[in-house]
Amino acid sequence: MSLGILCSGQGAQGSGMLDGLRVEPAAQAVLDGAAAALGWDPRVVAAGPEAEMRRNAVAQPLLCAVQAATWAALRPRLPPVRAVAGYSLGELSAYHVADALDLGDLLALAQKRAQAMDRADPEPGGLLAVRGLDRPRLEMLCREHDADIAIDNGPDRLVVGGRRTALAAIERAVLALGAAITPLAVDVASHTRRMAPAAAEFGPMLAAGGLRAPAVPVLAGIDGSAVFTRERAVSALTRQMTETVAWAACLDGLREMGCRVLLEIGPGDALARMARDRLPDLVVRAVSEFRSPAGAAAWVERQVG
């Protein structure tokens, strides 16, 4: 059975996310390199106030550093990977997992992406998860309140992005219709037209940077199709800043590519839970569900055989 890797997005970062990496020399070497590249140590930030690690300018490079460190601990222990998919910001880390971005390039791009997004809209924005409302009805509410569908996790599992005033109005309307809402710990309107200035700034940086063709396919967040070339990678990573992330299509794409075992590298297990719900015929776990990367790798070996 083939292995697929899931790279998490923002939201699950917390004080315990590096606990399993403390005795992993390869992970610590990556974190040392990240500290030198960023000018601040991810281990120190991860031990500090959660409000700081949720700030967009910190969260994006922090999460990429944590995922790169986790991958360094996992990679020698895992069988070959068939495909990689990343959720929102996680799509950038997916290219590191697919050997298309070195650590320095990954972190530099994560910093530049966050900075461009913070500059993109002068008004505060955010994301709101909505469950129990179909996409056509939610799109109607978005048109009425000047917001966008940011992420499609399934038929009635959607994320809306927009300015906070718009999200407040949509929240009232959604609750009146009997659906459930969860505000997400993101302070920009990711994957919406509000990020058009950020995409215009970030796209040329991607094109001029060290991004290579992935050694294994990465699924494009915008449509779930497999990316094999550098040109397509630049396009997909740029477009996902302003277009809806089709995460349900990414999960379906992993199955279509033959992945029968999925491992989320974290932090958290949100993607693993979504994958188990959507793809009950696959076996899915998250690294955070184990005491160590070694335990996660041993589980993968047992499943893949």
Automatic annotation (TrEMBL):
Gene3D superfamilies: Malonyl-CoA ACP transacylase, ACP-binding, Malonyl-Coenzyme A Acyl Carrier Protein, domain 2
InterPro entries for the chain: Ac_transferase_dom_sf (IPR001227), Acyl_transferase_dom (IPR014043), Acyl_Trfase/lysoPLipase (IPR016035), Mal-CoA-ACP_Trans/PKS_FabD (IPR050858), Malonyl_transacylase_ACP-bd (IPR016036)
One GO term of the biological process aspect: fatty acid biosynthetic process
A Pfam family hit: Acyl_transf_1
Entry GO terms, CC: cytosol
GO molecular function list: [acyl-carrier-protein] S-malonyltransferase activity
Record domain Malonyl-CoA:ACP transacylase (MAT): where: 6-303
Record's protein name: Malonyl-CoA:ACP transacylase (MAT) domain-containing protein
Protein species of origin: Azospirillum thiophilum
